[in-house]
Specification:
It contains eleven helices and no strands. It is mainly α. It folds into two domains: 60 residues; 75 residues, Fumarase/aspartase (C-terminal domain) (Ribonucleotide Reductase Protein R1, domain 1, Orthogonal Bundle), CATH 1.10.40.30. The chain is elongated and about 70 Å long. Keywords: Lyase.
Length: 161
Amino acid sequence: MLTENLTGLARLVRSAVTPALENVALWHERDISHSSVERAIGPDATVTLDFALHRLAGVVERLVVYPENMMRNMNKFRGLVMSQRVLLALTQAGVSREDAYRLVQRNAMKVWEQGADFKEELLKDPEVTAALPPEEIEEKFDLGYHLKHVDTIFRRVFGEG
């Protein structure tokens, strides 16, 4: 309920953007036609944002994370979460976008329909391995690629580390 409330509060704060942008055209004139808007959206947006940030901080402080469950859930897709990286690698290797999509989709459907492993299917597909060597396919399944900036993000957000 708290996070649902946060999405509603975010919409309220974003609703101040349009009137603020409409005031930009009048900045050089500084007449009273836009000051009423500024007097309303300034306090409303900042008070709402302050409340939302405090609520968000409370949610994050009480957040319980189960990394093993997260990995188990990611593994339910048997490698499909890496399909975008494979698709992009194929196009960067010179395969047309249409053919790359066909190759990825053909192997992805084996995962959905037969319970296969996506990476293993790619490694067995001669059209895929003609464009990407096996070690490059393996590299596209490295979860570390997606996590490489996590520490930097945490330092920026929380000022720690």
